[in-house]
Amino acid sequence: MLRRYILLNTNKFVNCRHVSQSMLQSTVDEKSGIATVTMNKPPVNSLNLEFLDEINTQLNKLQKDKIRGMILTSGLQKVFCAGLDITEFYNPNPDRLAKFWTVLQDTWLSLYMASFPTVAVINGHSPAGGCLFAMSCDYRVMVGPKYTIGLNETKLGIVAPKWFQDTMVAVIGQRKAEVSLTTGKMYTTDEALQVGLIDESLPDADSALKKGTQFLNNFQRISPWAFKMTKDISRQPTVQWLIDNKQKDLDFVLKFMQSPDVQKSLGLYLQSLKK
Ligand SMILES: CC/C=C\C/C=C\C/C=C\CC/C=C/CC(=O)SCCNC(=O)CCNC(=O)[C@H](O)C(C)(C)COP(=O)(O)OP(=O)(O)OC[C@H]1O[C@@H](n2cnc3c(N)ncnc32)[C@H](O)[C@@H]1OP(=O)(O)O
Asked: Could you say which protein family the record assigns here (predicted)?
């Protein structure tokens, strides 16, 4: 059952419905219908099976609730999202890895094709899967200048799947995405703005949240149906490959991730992170 709360959010009191509370906090502003979904899984919001499942469930719920827009952000000090939880890939249990990858596919489809407008307020570092989530929103506002964002998979000795790559191509174009992906480039906020990976850079989280809300307010006079149809037409070419190839994509990941060379690279990368 939904309960009424007064919630302290970025130093401001707002009237909102409290929808859930765990690794993910979700609040809906009653007046505007805008949801703020805050990832809060210390230390770095890494996306493991349970966290992804919670995010996907929440996205589906918000869709049913017919919210008018969503801000996706982080409750952590300096990380938006560290991407996929690398421990899901290292010495994996094949059944769990299969579930993990399937939930990731579904979560991406839910976010990328959300029926409501979405904004990523990137208030911390956003490598790999974190960058994928940000790129899957309709608009990106990043807090600068000290955080970084990008698809860094090649630096881990792994390969960004086709649908990660296609998402980046849709945002920054083929040529820039190719250089970015092959070099595993992590962009500073300024560089990300220059290349078009983010839409705006703001000096602090409060002003970034305000900017995100302003963007969503653009849709108050736009019919949700017209918005959704337009977004579907625009994004369909990017999602269709995964829709048609979910099993093939999963089979490939299971094989790829269990190969000795990939396991060796991941082990070394995990060690370097621990240091
Ligand atoms: C031929 C092939 C064709 C097609 C290919 C098809 C398929 C390919 C298959 C699969 C592709 C898989 C794709 C994966 C995408 C990903 O998302 S991989 C994840 C990449 N993420 C990263 O590289 C981020 C690494 N982390 C960082 O850079 C920093 O932690 C960060 C800047 C985010 C924060 O820095 P800081 O605040 O200083 O924190 P720490 O570095 O000290 O970290 C704190 C603890 O958290 C642990 N940790 C960090 N990131 C992760 C992570 N992603 N997963 C798990 N754990 C992580 C870190 O080890 C620390 O742990 P400790 O406290 O020491 O125990």
From this structure: Belongs to the enoyl-CoA hydratase/isomerase family.
